[in-house]
Amino acid sequence: MEAESIDAVAPLIQAADQWNEVLFLLPLLVALEAVLSADNAIALAAISRRLDDPALQRRALNFGLALALVFRLLLVLAARWVLHFPPLQLLASAYLLWLCASHFFHFGGSADGKEEAGAADAGEGASEGETATRSLLPVVATLAFTDLAFSLDSVAAAVAVSDRLALVMAGGVIGVIALRLTAELFIRWLGIYRHLESAGYLAVGLVGVRLLVRVIFPQIDPPEWSLLAVVAALFTWGFSQRVPEEEPPPPPAAG
To answer: CA 109, CA 102: separation in Å to the nearest integer?
Structure first.
């Protein structure tokens, strides 16, 4: 979900006839993006966690979201075409549903989701830098295409709400910055809360179902608050249980 898709924001953006008024809206957009992109952020965090090395995780997020920003800006320019091309939205829906299903059924990758182990085995004798690159590139591509799938609906809605191309692009930049910050935070939380990753992937599947329904049954238009309520319930469950801390080993017996 993105801030531009919330109906409550549309009148504010439409009322911003002067750029100085838009500047007052930017902090609101930043806050909304940070909150409403949580389902996207947790998916990106889970994908980047396929890399064990925190430094590689940060690099993957940096490169993946930089590529995602390029995709978003191109999508803004092509939004009018996207609005009238349902097959692209169907493809995005299928990708998000596959991403959700692959988490729960472990197809399309190893069960533990770690990319670097296979890359290290395949790269015996290769330099450490080459092995890291082989591990990094698939994750970067997955991050970029996942954000693109999430962005299809919201960018089209943003262009429909505002004809200020620069404002819509600014919203895309803000969204990517918010994702970068929240995704790294979610990486830490995924190691703390037992159900958070599953809750995030269920939210991904929900977005995929929403896109599918919009294309196949355009007359069905559930209110935004209902989707927000479901996502809020998923994340309440996700944060409901911590991973048990490992107990320290008992001290050696005396004598």
So the answer is: 8
Q: In angstroms, rounded to a whole number, what is the distance separating the alpha carbons of residues 87 and 93?
A: 10
Which pLDDT tens digit goes with each residue over 169-182?
777 787 788 888 88
Here the tokens at position 94 are 């299928």
- Tokens 């988490």, located at residue: 103
Question: In this structure, are residues 88 and 82 in contact, taking their beta carbons and an 8 Å threshold?
Answer: yes
Domain ranges of the chain: 3-90+107-191
140's CB contacts (< 8 A; 6+ apart) are 60, 63, 64, 67
**Residue with the two structure tokens 């920003």:** 69
Judged by phi (left if over 0) then psi (alpha if -120 to 50, else beta), residue 36 lies in alpha
What's the pLDDT at 242? 92
Is 98 exposed, middle or buried, given 0-12, 13-18 or 19+ CB atoms closer than 10 A? middle
As a whole number of angstroms, the distance between CA 200 and CA 206 comes to 10
Residue 161, exposed/middle/buried by CB under 10 A (0-12, 13-18, 19+)? buried
- The label of the residue with tokens 């429909």 reads 160
> What is the C-alpha separation between 115 and 183, in angstroms, rounded?
19
Question: Hey, CA dihedral for 142, 144, 145, 147, is it positive or negative?
Answer: positive
Decide if 158 contacts 32 (C-beta within 8 A).
Answer: no
Rounded CA separation 203/231 (Å): 6
Neighbouring residues of 214: CB distance < 8 A, sequence distance ≥ 6: 89, 153, 220, 221
Kindly state the percentage of the chain with pLDDT values over 90.
18
pTM summary value:
0.73
User: For the segment 134-161, what is each residue's pLDDT rounded down to a tens digit?
Assistant: 678 899 999 999 888 888 766 665 665 5
